[in-house]
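Lab notebook, page 48
Experiment: co-folding of the full assembly
Goal: obtain a model of how the components sit together before planning crosslinking
Operator: M.T.
Materials (sequences as entered):
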Amino acid sequence: MSLNLISPQFEVLRDENKCVQCKVCVKQCANEVHSYDEEDNVVRANDIKCVNCHRCVALCPTKALKIRKNSLEFRENANWTGQAIDEIYRQAETGGILLSSMGNPKNFPIYWDKMLLNASQVTNPSIDPLREPMETKVMIGRKPDKLEFDKDGKLVTEMPPQIELNMPIMFSAMSYGSISKNAHESLARAAEKLGILYNTGEGGLHKDFYKYGKNTIVQVASGRFGVHVGYLNAGSAIEIKIGQGAKPGIGGHLPGIKVGEDVSATRMIPMGSDAISPAPHHDIYSIEDLRQLIFSLKEATNYQKPVFVKIAAVHNVSAIASGIARAGADAIVIDGFRGGTGAAPTRVRDNVGIPIELALAAVDQRLRDEGIRNSISIICAGSIRNSADIVKAIALGADAVYIASAALIAIGCHMCHSCSTGKCNWGIATQDADLVKRLNPDIAYQRLVNLLTAWDHEVKEMLGGMGINAIDSLRGNRLMLRGIGLNSKELEILGIKHAGE
Amino acid sequence: MLKKEGEIRIPAGCAISGIIDRKGNRFNGEDIVKSIALMHERSNGLGGGFAGYGIYPQYKDFFALHIFYDNNVIKAKTEEFLNEHFEIESAGNIPTRKVSSVKGKPLIWRYFVQPRIYKVKDLNMDEEEFTARCVIRVNKEFDGAYVFSSGKNMGAFKGVGYPEDIGEFFMLENYEGYIWTAHGRFPTNTPGWWGGAHPFTMLDWSIVHNGEISSYDANRRFVEMYGYNCSLQTDTEVITYLLDLLVRKHKLPIEKAIQVLVAPFWKDIERENPKKAAELRALRTVYSSALINGPFSILIGYEDGLIALNDRIKLRSMVTAEKGNKVYFASEESAIRVICKDPENVRHPKGGEPVIVKLEVKK
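Observation: model returned without errors.
Model output:
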């Protein structure tokens, strides 16, 4: 074995005065950091295996454990950072591309945090959601150019299918395979309870979850895993995944280690095989091909289901979105470069794509310039962290948002960025039966319901503060936003004024 | 320097008043001036105005363009444009009398015009659309000229000052109409520009408005997709364009258009019978960006009648009453009683409940 030059990222600190050698940490850590030394009656730690997921810290009955960033430092160098050096060691050792999980962690601007909301004072009373009706229901789907009535005032226009959401939030695509069955069950049940939708991701729909169909978006991605006519008709909407914010330009990755019997059956692939989706759909090489796929799916489902098209936020996103609107999609999903993932090449995750805020603003404006914004819904994805982000997204022009990382955090994810290993100690991003058991869907679904109920309340409070009592009146209402610390080009793209203007 | 409407968005509070004679009998402008004058405290001298319907019977087939000019240079330039696009039947000053408190008056002109037929045909549109586009173009591109009224057999009269002074200035006692509306303005921040006063009009729509709509930018960005340009950045302007879009361009019956502007709450829609609920759901789904939000009471005048409208939770006052053929509307009940002894059916319409009064005779 050659010399391993990689140093541990974290240090496990154990307070020996508190440790009672109960071995809970040994049992809990799927990464095998902790081990019990019978001879000396001590629990030891192998720091190099630690991903800082906090499982042992949370479960240690005597609170004897702490995880710290490893204080070992390379000689200070703004260019050759410790991470840059470590990554070279890793690739020199393996000859492989670097893999990462969850969203882009780099220090790029977060525009949500550079926009501030308005509130009413005097000339316009704020509205109190505790005392007045406050509406956050939205309708997602294609809208006709206008409604026509006959001479007797009867509506003659036929409405395309619409998805009714009790709040402008949905759970974004996470496949069964990348996350556990219990995680999927939690999302599905929460969506049903909340009157919203969750998304199967590209891994098909487990047979036990067809009963949540009314609250399900079924995804069709380039790998076409688990896609059949029963699947297409099982949900309320169909999403064609062209791209994902975390890895624009490439397809999904599911390591074979996560493909057990159940996942294999659901995806319709052999057990243990890597599920690597092709980068493009092999039947979509241009916008007219996309149109054909949209209408093939509509044909297969008798024009009863809206078809969403999901793309990653890339440089010319607005022109692409315009094409998608004209190709007949019912909704466009734009996924920003901070969007999460179960596994993506690190270089792609950290360097490809653009911030969702800029992409969303550009798409909304472009569709308005072309006079077609009202015909299609826009769903904003790629790191919505709280209710204020939602309010800002809608004011920029979104109809609704997708959340995924936030949903996983609600059910226990500690953002250790190690989903691709399949060893998620919290039972979320794993298929290991013993680990999956750790996630109790009865509890987890309630936590999701709690989170979104709280966010919906907060959205209502902010709406009321702005003197608005229906979310319809916030959509694209950019006067409600002001930039802070942004240059004039950024303000121009966001279509907002600076604070104080 | 203070910016004027169009350069900045200026919130304003206000008083409004309106009268309609259902039989179409015409009466002069004295009552409407008296009514709005009573609510003097609700305005601050920075804007007042009126709209009258049926006031130009001798020219009823012509579009009556009322225009403010800053100077003769822009007037000449604008008239050249008008000449190119319209046959001008008659042109002249709008008569005014001197009122000491009304200052800074622009040149105020009136033209009775017909679109040049070959131009309308060339562009493959109807006369209304043609005229509307010309008006929008003058207001957008002719700096210093502002068309503040453009309907047939109706006209707006407005300016900077208290409304009763503006009424005296324009000598409204000399006009007779079957509908009158009035507005006294309380802007919070304006240098006082005549074009910024209410009513705002578009063809034969006229709107007076008390309130501040918080959905403004959502409404503006929606309506601008259909060729409108909200050059004034005022609430009344965007509401007028929304109505024009829904009724004139999309041909929605007026009652349906109102259900778009003050859409019923979802919970109320769900209580309707399935057919009605499906229709309301469709209106709200397709036209959700045309929902007007925030506190307002507005009076919408058009050729066939007068509509009073409150926001969905009644954040601004609005009273209606009847007597004989006439229906009265005002921000305060006293403003009705001052011109109508013993009014009947005095009531405060609920939030979101439109009061639509149509002429019983076809004009």
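Interpretation: Chain B has a mean pLDDT of 92.
Next step: discuss with group before ordering constructs.
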